[in-house]
Design goal:
91 residues, alpha+beta, three-stranded antiparallel sheet, two-stranded parallel sheet, 27% strand
Length: 91
């Protein structure tokens, strides 16, 4: 996406964990074939230049005012792509 937009458009990735790991890596860790460090990478290292990373949990997404509340910070957005959070009890 960074390649498609001009510099005036800011791209921000927000996640509460600083590292990304491949889902299949959990099985390798469980079987003792890999360590967490071997199946994970810093999110900063994976982002294209010009993409900002904020380590935080999104507390609320305001649809009417197009804001994302991170607790201590609030960001305006034009496009939001929320990820999923697994809730085993169903909410």
């Amino acid at each position: 996406m960074r390649r498609l937009l001009t510099a005036e458009h800011e791209i921000v990735v927000i996640d509460e964990t600083p590292r990304f790991h491949v889902g299949a890596g959990k099985t390798w860790i469980m079987l003792g074939e890999r360590t967490y460090e071997q199946v994970s990478q810093s999110r900063l290292a994976l982002l294209a230049p010009g993409v900002r990373f904020i380590e935080a949990k999104v507390q609320n997404i305001g649809l009417s005012d197009r804001t994302a509340s991170l607790g201590s910070e609030s960001l305006k957005w034009n496009l939001a792509h929320p990820g999923l959070e697994w809730v085993p009890e169903g909410g």
